[in-house]
Amino acid sequence: MTKYSFLDLVPVVEGGSVAQAFANTADLARHAESLGFTRYWIAEHHGMPGIAGGATAVVIGHVAAATRHIRVGAGGIMLPNHAPLVVAEQFGTLDALFPGRMDLGLGRAPGSDQRVARALRRNLDSDPDGFPRDVLEIQSYFANDGQTGISAMPGAGAKVEMWILGSSTFGAQLAAMLGLPYAFASHFAPDALDAALDIYRRTFRPSAVLDRPYVAAGFNVFGAATDEEAEYLASSQAQAFVALRTGQPRPLPPPVAGYRESLPDSAAAILGHVLQCSATGGPAKLARGIAAFIARTGADELILTSSIFDHEARKASLSYAAAAMQELRAAA
Question: Is-above-0.90 flag for pTM?
Answer without folding.
Answer: yes
